[in-house]
Specification:
By secondary structure, the protein is mainly α. Helix 2 packs across helix 5, helix 2 (33-45) packs across helix 6 and helix 6 (135-147) crosses helix 8 (165-188). The chain has helices spanning 17-30, 33-45, 49-53, 82-90, 109-122, 135-147, 152-159, 165-188, 197-200; strands at residues 60-61, 64-68, 75-79. A hairpin with a 6-residue loop joins strand 2 (64-68) and strand 3. The protein is globular. A three-stranded antiparallel β-sheet has the order 1-2-3, with no helix packed on it.
Length: 213
């Protein structure tokens, strides 16, 4: 069995930006609609795949997704980022569920996992040292919130965690990313031929999802 590195507390590592871009590009290339929709729901709401599978169109209203977490039983109202709202605006409606098997039932969780695994295999994220798992998308969403200056309660409202231990892990990761960005910026100051606008842009609350209780 391949050893997958976890953070203390049971959370997997977030996906690097390059891996996220590779996943998106591969979904587009092979027309992997199920894998892409599951990804957009997971990274846009910060929820587990099992909870994403159960999301209905009726749960999504005025930019807010209502979720009852299967693991914690927590009732959440999550404000979705514009990216997810735009994706859902053009997604086909084949039933009551966003990931619909038929008019009344969602696609099975195993089928969704299989679709995601197929894309992960294509981009080299399924096995070995480069292995990345969908649960890491949840971490990506929380880190972006921390980078954008969201409060502990806002982050908790999305993840459903009962303690602040995991929130602190998200903040630690956000601090690492901020320091890394600062080092890149200082390194690029002496390189006039390098574009820095995209690399050095700082996150703002407008760029990320704000979550409601």
């Amino acid at each position: 069995m391949v050893d997958v590195s976890k953070l203390k507390g049971g959370e997997y590592e977030p996906w690097p930006a390059a891996a996220l871009r590779a996943y998106e590009a591969k979904c587009t290339e092979i027309d992997a609609h199920i894998a892409r929709t599951a990804y957009e729901l997971a990274i846009g709401t910060g929820q587990r795949l099992g909870d994403c599978v159960k999301m209905r169109w009726s749960d999504f209203d005025s930019g807010v997704m209502r979720v009852v977490q299967e693991k914690t039983g927590a009732h959440l109202r999550i404000y979705c980022p514009s990216r997810l709202q735009n994706y859902l605006a053009t997604a086909p409606k084949r039933g009551a569920h966003i990931l619909a098997k038929n008019l009344t039932q969602p696609i099975g969780k195993r089928q969704v996992q299989g679709a995601v695994e197929a894309v992960r295999t294509e981009i080299g994220a399924m096995h070995g040292a480069g292995r990345l798992v969908p649960h890491g998308w949840r971490y990506n969403a929380a880190v972006e919130l921390a980078e954008a200056g969201s409060s502990d309660s806002e982050i908790q409202s999305v993840t459903g965690h009962k303690t602040l231990e995991m929130v602190q892990k998200y903040r630690d990761r956000a601090s690492q990313e901020k320091r890394a960005s600062g080092l890149r910026w200082r390194g690029n100051k002496s390189r006039p031929n390098r574009e820095c606008a995209k690399q050095c842009a700082k996150p703002t609350l407008d760029n990320y999802q704000i979550f409601l209780h």
